[in-house]
Amino acid sequence: MADCELYENPLSGNCYKVRLVMSQLAMPLRRVAIDTNAGGTRTPEFLALNPNGKVPVLRLEDGTVLTESNAILWYLASGSALLPTVRLDQARVLEWLFFEQYSHEPYIATLRNWIAYAGKAEEKAAEIESARPRGYAALGIMERRLEGHPFLVGDRYSIADIALYAYTHVAEEGEYDLAGFPAVRAWIGRVAEQPGHSKITE
Fold it and tell me: How many Cβ atoms sit within 10 Å of the Cβ of residue 73?
């Protein structure tokens, strides 16, 4: 059986999420690097995979294509210990997945990209100043949850943690100071200790 193929930008946290869950579930994977800065997601070949023109894209063994990082996480984790079986806990996981995409990633990930990789810190200075408080607000919500819990849902490690960890653990690349978030920093350490963990740079 052929391995799954992940079309990715290796530096992307959204792509890293998929690699991390597959590493922790010991799923074989073939990685296909896409140069997103050079229009790699706008070629006819890529748009045939994902008309939305974004990574990650996961092609399954049978050729089926999945897009959207958190949908991919849900699919891969189904039936594993990384996704709760209790309906309410599944809904809690979805709460965090939606939170990550709408209240966290637009501010934590975007600033990381502009500052550390796209060289747009000066060009986007006004947008960065506007976005940073909302990024800190998202970190504050995580801090309050993690002050009394080891993980985000049901006190067990799940794809909710993977989804939020991807960009939170590199938030300092976007010049976020995590010193004021001790529970978040402790949680980052716990996630990094999970079996099968791999680094974003691997």
Answer: 26
22, 4 Cβ separation under 8 angstroms: yes
| H helices present in 116-172, as ranges | 125-146, 159-168
Query: Which of 74, 83, 142, 77 lies closest to 108 in space, CA to CA?
Result: 142
0.70 exceeded by pTM: yes
Cα 31 from chain centroid (whole Å): 17
Nearest to 153 by CA among 71, 82, 80, 92: 92
- Please identify which residue in the block is written with the tokens 């995580």: 142
pLDDT digits (tens, 9 = 90+) for 101-157: 999 999 999 999 999 999 999 999 999 999 999 999 999 999 999 999 999 999 999
Q: How far apart are CA 174 and CA 111, in angstroms?
A: 5
Let me know: does 136 contact 176? Beta carbons within 8 Å: yes
Q: What is the pLDDT of residues 61-84, one digit of tens each?
A: 999 999 999 999 999 999 999 999
Residues linked to residue 5 through DSSP beta bridges, in sequence order: 30, 59
Torsion of CA 107, 113, 115, 118, to 10 degrees: -140
